[in-house]
Design a protein that fits this description.
100 residues, alpha+beta, Alpha-Beta Plaits, four-stranded antiparallel sheet, 3 helices, 34% helix, ABM domain-containing protein, Dimeric_a/b-barrel, ABM_dom, catalytic activity
């Protein structure tokens, strides 16, 4: 299982447009066969900060996501939103336990 977690910050005047554009990415990614979870959540403390969480069944599914047209299109559009900070980390997990 592949888990990706982190955050992105964009210029404050770009945050609403970034959220709209990212909604398209989230909707399309959630329909990918290997996607378990895919979220961008806007911070309640800083409107231009978006928390990222992704979970894919395996590396092949993650790689397929990276090649998907909707992801590549979104990635090319990032420069429009003036990304100011980003920290995203990929983890390889061997077990998934639901706690609640």
């Amino acid at each position: 299982m592949i888990v990706v977690s982190g955050f992105m910050e964009v210029a404050p005047d770009c945050a609403d447009r970034f959220a709209e554009r990212t909604r398209e990415l989230v909707d399309a990614t959630r329909r990918e066969p290997g996607c378990v979870e895919y979220r961008f959540a806007r911070s309640i403390e800083k409107a231009e900060r978006f928390e990222v969480f992704e979970e894919f069944v395996d590396q092949a599914a993650f790689d397929e996501h990276a090649r998907a047209d909707h992801y590549r299109s979104w990635n090319r559009a990032l420069k429009e939103f003036q990304v100011t900070r980003v920290s995203i980390v990929k983890y390889v997990a061997t077990e998934r336990t639901v706690l609640a």
